[in-house]
Amino acid sequence: MKVLLFFGLVAVALAEVTRFEGEKVFRLKPVLDEHVTAIKELAKSIEVDFWSPDSAELLTIDIDVDIHVPAMYLDMVYTILQQSGMEYEILIEDLQAAIEGQADNKPTPRAHSYTKYNSWDKIQSWIASISSSNSALISKQVIGNTYEGRPMTVLKLGKRSSSTKPAIFMDCGIHAREWISPAFCQWFVKEALSTYGRDSQMTSLLNQMDVFVLPVFNIDGYDFTHKSNRMWRKTRSRKSGSSCIGADPNRNFNAGWCTLGASSNPCSDTFCGYSPESEIEVKNVANFIRRNKSIIKAYITIHSYSQLLLFPYSYTYDLAADHSELLKVAQGASAALRSLYGTRYTSGPGAATIYPAAGGSDDWAYDLGVKYSYTFELRDTGRYGFLLPESQIKPTCEETMLAVKYIAAYVQKNL
Ligand code: ARG
Ligand code: ZN
User: Fold this and answer.
1) Cβ(360) – ligand 1 distance below 6 Å
2) Whole-angstrom Cα distance, residue 228 to residue 18?
3) Average pLDDT for residues 32-42, to the nearest whole number?
4) Whose CA is nearest to atom 7 of ligand 1?
5) What is the spatial distance between Cα 213 and Cα 172, in angstroms, rounded to a whole number?
6) Which of 50, 106, 171, 317 is buried most deeply by CB count within 10 Å?
7) Where does the record locate the signal sequence feature (predicted)?
8) Does residue 377 have an active-site annotation?
9) Is the CB of 303 under 6 A from ligand 1?
10) pLDDT for 210
11) What's the helix, strand, coil split of the chain in %, to 5?
12) 50: Cβ contacts below 8 Å, ≥ 6 apart
């Protein structure tokens, strides 16, 4: 028995796959200050994984709180819920079962698929093959390596031209566990290539502009969610002095860095990093955008979940100088998205619409001078959260295409 246990532990240590049997995701509905205090206290005493908002720092009254609770703390959570009289729902009864339910039942194809969540290895070979087989419309460049040494490749989509073209920059996968996001960047590239010459808007867009696509921003984190811990969010950087790994790339940009809605605790999921751009992935992207600042007219970053279309600012409640135009375009894009399957999005500036959170890529790009700067939070609103089933990849990407194309068309018209 002891021997078995020993080998069991060795096996677990070698594979190091985190499992989530019996763990639950709750939606708490704080309507009193006492409720907020109770959740904050809870977060201090046990390890709760915040799904929405992103951390305890961001809690306020009247916004729903989605938290993932390990099995050993369930009794404690139920007691606190009872004592405080707070309303709640259980979104996910068993997280491990939900993780396993995310993939559709078709046997896993060995190849890359647009309707599955592809591993980094598959995405990497997809990047190589799609760019070599469409050389008239696509080129690639490595903008640097990740902390663990993986190449960050930006795809440039657009008809070749002798003069420099204005461009749109889009990234996916800033946060590792938001798997629908990289799926969208892959979908976007496929759609752009297959509708060029057939769809008049795509044709005109790629004739006049280039679209830079970074399919996975936080590659190390994404790979880690596939191999070790499905719920990982941050980068995978290490620094002596802390045993906690990684920083939140969307708190690490130099925009009101670490002032609000971010944590200076390296163990927090919203750790802002040791300095702005301390994360090499952030530095690589920021350098690329700075270098191409004169041509980049729009910045689009894809996250999940909550069904939101956000724009600056998030590091302050002040309205952006271009607030009314940004809002008008966001509302148009949301309406376009909704026209396909009725999916409702809320749009507005980050701070007022969800919560203030400094150090985000959208605010940074905007302050650099990229006026049309948008953060998408894709499906859903919490039924599956980060574990959106693969059966929803296609409809989610189709509707999101309409919103992204709406923004692109507007930018193009207003060059
Ligand atoms: N859920 C995203 C995050 O917290 C929202 C980003 C909105 N923009 C921002 N700069 N905070 O990272
Ligand atoms: Zn995110």
Assistant:
1) yes
2) 6
3) 93
4) 350
5) 8
6) 171
7) 1-15
8) yes
9) yes
10) 98
11) 40, 20, 40
12) 43, 56, 58, 65, 66, 67, 68, 269
Task: Give me ligand 2 centre to Cα 306, in Å.
Answer: 10
pTM assigned to the model: 0.94
Query: Mind listing the pLDDT tens digit for each residue in 347-402?
Result: 999 999 999 999 999 999 999 999 999 999 999 999 999 999 999 999 999 999 99
Average pLDDT over residues 198-217: 98
Cβ of residue 362 lying under 6 Å from some atom of ligand 1: yes
The β-bridge relationship of strands 308-311 and 346-349 is parallel
Q: Which ligand is nearest to the CA of 309?
A: 1
d(CA 181, CA 300): 12
54 lines ligand 1 (CB under 6 A): yes
Query: What domains does the chain contain, in order, with CATH numbers?
Result: 24-102 (3.30.70.340), 120-413 (3.40.630.10)
Give the number of the atom of ligand 1 that is nearest the alpha carbon of residue 315: 10
Query: SS3 for 153?
Result: strand
State the ligand closest to the CA atom of 179: 2
Report the complex ipTM: 0.97
Band the pLDDT of 106: cuts 50, 70, 90: confident
